[in-house]
Write a structure and sequence with these properties.
Keywords: DNA integration, DNA recombination, DNA-binding. The chain has about 220 residues and is an alpha/beta fold. About 55% of the residues lie in helices and about 15% in strands. The longest helix is centred in the middle third of the chain and has 18 residues.
Length: about 220
């Protein structure tokens, strides 16, 4: 029979080693045996018993996001593409949809997703593109998920150049904060966006600003 250290056992079942120590003290789950130097070891039978409970309550969760209600068609396309991908995986799933800026951390869908990860209800989170989850802070959510035994899977892993990523990040920041400015300062911010995106038309920049204004109001 195979035995697992506390760290390995915790990682497999999606909890922390401290949780297992707490379970030992409370009587919820004792290790199979403890070595002479105090290390806890768990058996393969215990793993089978625990994962049988854990996997039944965990789900694969798809997450789709757009920045504005005006992007309803884009959101529907995301959901349809993600649903098709998840069906092909052959696992039960559900999809959380969200509307809001990639730098808004208070979106209802995002908060719901984080709560599910932290309560060990998510086996895997699947997103079409990395920036659909968050524009900034993706690695933090990824780390939180890993602590709870949840993997974040990105369907489209096409690499962007550093310059392209930097421009997209700067445009997002300037667009959102320009909505809070008035008069000449707002005009200057709009001009900066035009220069960053390579001289796009006023209409395009105006659309981006309108989207960001909608996000700010929400």
């Amino acid at each position: 029979m195979e035995y697992y250290t506390i760290n390995k056992f915790a990682k497999i079942i999606g909890v922390t080693p401290q949780t297992l120590r707490n379970w030992d003290r409370s009587g919820k789950l004792h290790p199979h045996h403890t070595s002479s130097n105090g290390y806890r070891y768990y058996s393969e039978d215990q793993l089978n018993a625990v994962t049988g409970i854990q996997t039944a309550s965990k789900k694969v969760i798809g997450y789709c996001r757009v920045s504005s209600p005006r992007q309803k068609d884009d959101l529907e396309r995301q959901v349809e593409n993600l649903r098709t991908y998840l069906y092909a995986q052959g696992q039960p799933f559900e999809i959380i949809i969200d509307v809001g800026s990639g730098i808004n951390y208070k979106k209802k869908g995002l908060q719901d997703l984080i709560r599910r990860i932290e309560s060990n209800q998510a086996e895997k989170v699947v997103i079409l593109y990395k920036d659909r989850l968050l524009r900034f802070g993706f690695e933090l959510i990824e780390t939180i998920a890993a602590i709870h035994g949840c993997k974040i899977e990105i369907v489209d892993t096409t690499q962007k150049s550093e310059q392209q990523e930097l421009v997209e990040d700067l445009v997002q920041i300037i667009t959102v904060f320009s909505c809070k400015l008035q008069g000449k300062r707002a005009h200057k911010a709009k001009k900066m966006i035009q220069e960053l995106v390579g001289g796009d038309s006023d209409d395009k920049v105006g659309q981006d600003t309108a989207v960001a204004e909608q996000q700010t109001e929400n």
